[in-house]
Design a protein that fits this description.
Largest sheet: 9 strands, mixed
InterPro entries: Solute-binding_3/MltF_N (IPR001638)
Low-confidence stretches: 1-28
Helix content: 40-55%
Distance between the termini: 53 Å
Organism: Actinoallomurus iriomotensis
Order of helices and strands: HHEEEEHEHEHEEEHEHEHEHHH
Number of domains: 2
Radius of gyration: 22 Å
CATH architecture of the largest domain: 3-Layer(aba) Sandwich
CATH topology of the largest domain: D-Maltodextrin-Binding Protein, domain 2
CATH superfamily of the largest domain: Periplasmic binding protein-like II
Protein name: ABC transporter substrate-binding protein
Keywords: Signal
Shape: globular
Number of strands: 12
Strand content: 25-35%
Pfam families: SBP_bac_3
CATH class of the largest domain: Alpha Beta
Number of helices: 11
Length: about 280
């Protein structure tokens, strides 16, 4: 109402002014991702489509997994009637967000300082851990101490790739578009070990009957978050509110029990937060 002055008599005018103020406060900025999503009615979600049990295509080509169920629930809670899933890979997630190819990445991303410089992240929605997998029955590798000098398979653009390059001496790092390809190569003896999500390795060993097995301890455990473009505070707040509500009402626990072999991800997130606070 540019150029219009509001007088302040009691009664109707004051009430109308209050309504205008409240409406303005509730309105999402037009440039914010949340406004764009609600206008289009579609939340565009990037994921690998090859990261079981987080997200993957089943034998009929249907997209399934923890990330998929979580994405649909987040969309519902931020008032986006539809979800459009876009298959890509870890190496292109950040560039795609910045180029506006999708609204959000929900695909088991780890928060790093380098990534934070380029995109924004939600609060954690899961925990993961890096495990060492070898060919079943391999007598040469019993854990991380046996990895120096070995050919190590990793997914490009992941924290596992960074770990192999910086923490394993003389590692011969072989990169793959996704962990499924890496673990398939491992089962055929084309690499000595693969650094991969504990959930992925266990899932593929069981469901695809790959000749692989975990050895030694979990290398490190870390939270997973969703990423989206910077400068969208309303979208960030809406996504965090949705995740918090899913934790509070038991939805996240139900999804994780169904998709992650009975694990209660909400309880694990709460325990990790308590450990960080007391530690």
């Amino acid at each position: 109402m540019r150029g219009t002055r509001l007088s302040r008599p009691p009664g109707v005018c004051a009430s109308a002014a209050m309504i205008l103020v409240l409406t303005a406060c509730a309105r999402t900025p037009a440039g914010d991702t949340l406004d764009q999503v609600r206008r289009s009615g579609v939340l565009r979600v990037a994921l690998t489509e090859a990261n079981p049990p987080w997200n993957f295509l089943d034998r009929e080509g249907r997209l399934k997994g923890y990330d998929v169920d979580v994405a649909r629930e987040v969309a519902r809670r931020i008032n986006a009637p539809r979800v459009r899933f876009i298959g890509t890979d870890f190496a292109t997630f950040i560039g795609g967000i910045r180029a506006g190819k999708y609204d959000i990445v929900i695909s088991g991303q780890t928060v790093t300082a380098e990534r934070r410089e380029q995109v924004a992240f939600s609060r954690p929605y899961a925990l993961n851990g890096v495990a060492v997998f070898v060919h079943a029955g391999d007598p040469a590798i019993h854990g991380p101490a046996d990895l120096p000098g070995k050919k190590i398979g990793v997914s490009e653009g992941t924290v596992q790739a960074d770990y192999a390059r910086t923490r394993i001496r003389r590692a011969k790092v072989k990169t793959y578009r996704n962990a499924v390809l890496a673990l398939n190569d491992l089962s055929w003896g084309r690499c000595d070990a693969v650094l991969v999500s504990r959930f992925q390795g266990d899932y593929l060993a069981e469901h695809r009957r790959l000749a692989i097995a975990p050895v030694g301890r979990i290398l490190h455990e870390y939270p997973l978050s969703m990423s989206f473009r910077k400068g969208a505070p309303a979208f960030e707040a809406a996504v965090d509110t949705a995740i918090n509500a899913m934790i509070g009402d038991g939805t996240l626990s139900a999804i994780s029990r169904r998709r992650l072999n009975g694990r209660d991800m909400a309880a694990e997130l709460d325990a990790a937060r308590s450990d960080a606070t007391t530690g």
